Amino acid sequence: MSRAFLSTAVPSTSGRERRVRGRGGRRGFGDGGGNPAVVVARASSAASSAWREESDVNAWARETWSKFIERDDDVVDATLGRGRDALAVLANHGDAHSGLVYGFDVEPEALVAANEAFDRAGVPESRRSFHLKCHSDMLDVVPSDAKVGVVTFNLGYLPGGDKTTRETRAKTRADTTTSALRSALSLLRVGGCVTVIAYVGHEGGWAEHDAVRDFLAQLPCREWTVTTRAVVNRHNAPILYVVVRDR
């Protein structure tokens, strides 16, 4: 079996320099008037914000979804959480999106929060199908003829709460995650993508990441393209994997 091509994308700052456009006549110091300190501070803040986005694994995932999602695609959020990822996918086409969103989570709190988020966003119940199930059981719910364009995995555990609360929450595991990935790939349409954000800072995080990496690395490169992106000089930084079905 061929091994998929794995590449590491390094965030680029090329062409992303921010210019302060003048609003104060010839001074060109914007709202800071003639005070260079104000201009420097604002430019520094803008550059810092831009760099945070360049190193934000969730922003990378959102950028990826926007390139692959089609208006009539079904979406699978394999780690539903509070519904933010699923809503971010839908936002690419807004009300024009006609597909169904399938969501899976083992935390009852997650389903409540996700349904509330979808209600606030005005997404009708007829366009969502949320389940208190492990993502490894997605084939029990998602029909084989669904037009699935995007599948998202945000591994780890439900965020929020204090340290004690977080420690009691269920965590995704290597065995069920790789099983869910296998199911997700079987559902994905040609030209669609699966994204996996692996968090490695918690107990079991690295083991789960390694299992995901090893599973994806064995996908046939004639059918799949697998890439990875991470901040390499930050300790235990999360890692994004993108899987595209080519044929």
Give the helices and strands, then pairings.
Elements: E1 8-9, H1 36-54, H2 57-68, E2 74-77, H3 84-90, E3 101-104, H4 108-121, E4 128-131, E5 148-154, H5 163-168, H6 174-187, E6 188-198, H7 205-217, E7 224-230, E8 239-245
Parallel strand pairs: 1-7, 2-3, 2-5, 3-4, 5-6
Antiparallel strand pairs: 6-8, 7-8
Give me a quick take on this structure.
The protein is α/β, with parallel strands linked by helices. Helices cover 34% and strands 19% of the residues. The chain has helices at 36-54, 57-68, 84-90, 108-121, 163-168, 174-187, 205-217; strands spanning 8-9, 74-77, 101-104, 128-131, 148-154, 188-198, 224-230, 239-245.
